[in-house]
Amino acid sequence: MSALTLWRNAKLATLTSNTPWGWVANGALLTQGARIVWAGDAAALPTAQTPHIQNEVDLGGALLTPGLVDCHTHLVYGGQRAAEFELRLQGASYEEIARAGGGIRSTVAATRAASDADLLASATRRAQSLMAEGVTTVEIKSGYGLSEADEARCLRVARTLGETLPFTVRTTYLGAHAVPPEFAGRTDDYIDAVCAWLPALQRQGLVDAVDAFCENIGFTPAQTRFVFEAARALGLPVKLHAEQLSDQGGAALAAEFGALSCDHLEHLNEKGIRAMKAAGTVAVLLPGAYYFLRDTKLPPIDALRAHGVPMAIATDHNPGTSPGLSLLLMLNMACTLFRLTPEEALRGATVNGARALGLHDRGTLAAGQRADFCVWDLDHPHELAYWFGHNPCRRTIVGGLERTV
Ligand code: DI6
Ligand code: FE
Predict the structure, then answer these.
(1) Which of 89, 172, 366, 387 is 20 to 30 A away from residue 98, measured at CA?
(2) What φ, ψ does residue 326 adopt, rounded to 5°?
(3) Are 13 and 67 within 8 A, CB to CB?
(4) What are phi and psi of 352, to 5 degrees?
(5) How many CA atoms are closer than 13 Å to the CA of 262, on its beta-carbon side?
């Protein structure tokens, strides 16, 4: 057996069981390379393993959790939209700005104008902010290129981030985010193009999943179905921006395609909830967008909980509706605004976030999982959802190695 590292003298929120937090008061972890080989009560450390321990790290009684997973971001884009924020403060709505050609389309223009190096540099800085708070896996969507070349460019930048920074990147193709100016008035033609670009993007290894914006200012369920059929034909999993601003029945449609997740969900109805439950689809809640749009319609949290639909929490980082880069602040907002418990919020940014990406090898502290974990300057995990504007992340271990950001 090859060398083991013992991480000892820690409090563990393993999140492995239904016991509160999967709590282990006097815990330890054994890692081998990029994997956890054992996690549990220090007194139960398997004696067969001890001769193979080559390194020992004393964590001084600190709190350990799985590495955080931000399962919904739009991290790669050019420009910013602070002027649009001011317009909204003066009374314009997000939909009005979008219909007038601003919104997503203005970021598309800025993204197309940006060089690859600029896109990579700005996305790197954003990724570093997320990582500083313990994010070890992030999903990044395209959707600000909206041409074959620019979508490929943005997805490539996202892949490059994953190759150059110490975290995992999963990429999602969101060609169906908005209609670009060259397709104005020809939405169905644009959807055909979005579907036609997909095989080449997949061949270049740029796509882990496919998403769409099913909305009155986005795409209809029928158009979304075309995109999903194209994804299914290539064996790619789907996700959906569903029921954010209106009830389009998008969640039920996505569930029909076995979607990994439906995201936003403020206007989700009972039928959608049942369909998501039956399909094993994760509900990704995005309190940053709810807050920044000053939304008042809450996602149906009680019903999601009653039906046992797994809930995830993410930043939705994007320049229009959620310019924040703190997943910990989202945990706080998930509790204050959406009334999740602190434990639901943490599970949402770890094990359920991973599940929303189709990843089952991370999100808990257990044998066989990736050795991605955070060491916090905290006594108890409920503090993760309590403090805000303060970063208690002391160390992050990714694939068994300590990272410096
Ligand atoms: N929903 C969102 O919250 C983002 N995209 C989407 O489909 C917003 C994108 C933007 O305004 O730039
Ligand atoms: Fe989004």
Answers:
(1) 172
(2) -125, 105
(3) no
(4) -75, -30
(5) 35
What are residue 189's phi and psi, to 5 degrees? -65, -40
Residue in this structure with the two tokens 């590292």, named with its chain if needed: 5
Q: How far is Cα 390 from Cα 93, in angstroms, rounded to an integer?
A: 32
Kind of pairing, strands 53-66 and 168-176? unpaired
pLDDT single digits (tens) 281-319: 999 999 999 999 999 999 999 999 999 999 999 999 999
Nearest CA to ligand 1 atom 10: 320
Return the amino acid letter for 238.
V
- Give the long-range contacts of residues 156-159, CB within 8 A, separation 24 or more: 156/116, 156/204, 156/206, 157/76, 157/116, 157/119, 157/120, 157/123, 158/75, 158/76, 158/123, 159/205, 159/206
pLDDT tens for 15-34 read 998 899 999 999 999 999 99
Ligand 1 midpoint to CA 312 (Å): 18
Extract the tokens encoding 336: 């204050």
pTM over 0.90: yes
Handedness of CA 185, 156, 331, 339 (dihedral sign): positive
Residue nearest to atom 6 of ligand 1 (CA): 213
Give, for ligand 1, the residue of 72, 141, 211, 213 to mutate: max count of ligand atoms closer than 8 Å to Cβ: 213
Residues with CB under 6 A from ligand 1: 103-104, 107, 177, 213, 241, 244, 289, 316, 318-321
Distance 52 CA to ligand 1 centre (A): 50
